[in-house]
Amino acid sequence: xxxxxxxxxxxxxxxxxxxxxxxxxxxxxxxxxxxxxxxxxxxxxxxxxxxxxxxxxxxxxxxxxxxxxxxxxxxxxxxxxxxxxxxxxxxxxxxxxxxxxxxxxxxxxxxxxxxxxxxxxxxxxxxxxxxxxxxxxxxxxxxxxxxxxxxxxxxxxxxxxxxxxxxxxxxxxxxxxxxxxx
Length: 182
What we know:
- By secondary structure, the protein is mostly helical.
- The chain contains six helices and no strands.
- It has helices at 2-19, 47-70, 74-100, 111-118, 125-150, 154-181.
- Helix 2 runs antiparallel to helix 5 (125-150).
- It is elongated.
- Mean pLDDT is 81; it is low at 16-38.
């Protein structure tokens, strides 16, 4: 009788432990009815574009934040502030789409981009800021345009097409700033 009670208690404890365990119950790391996706790059060929777009977005936001503080002219600080707000919105939309597609995005500016920001000429911070941001926008626009034409995922294709227009507007803001600095 005692053995039966002990055995029943052991089964109950084991069942509870299994029920609340974070380990997958099925072989291959999948529980019944639940798909575990670490990073869906292999499922979404356009996921690499999302990752690169997130890196570019983080770079521009980082530069804008820097220019809001270190900009020599009020025009640079104002434009950088506006761009930081607009780029943050674009980044939020990008993160929502990436989450929907199960694509993991980088959390911060990569080391290469941080080093590029560090290369801003301290003698002419405004001009250096404008040149670097324009160069990055040119790269982004080409990337978004290519993705808008060639993407296989319709959601990403639509995001890229809308992004081209958005980035062109942002670039025009920097061009206007560049004209004011001349």
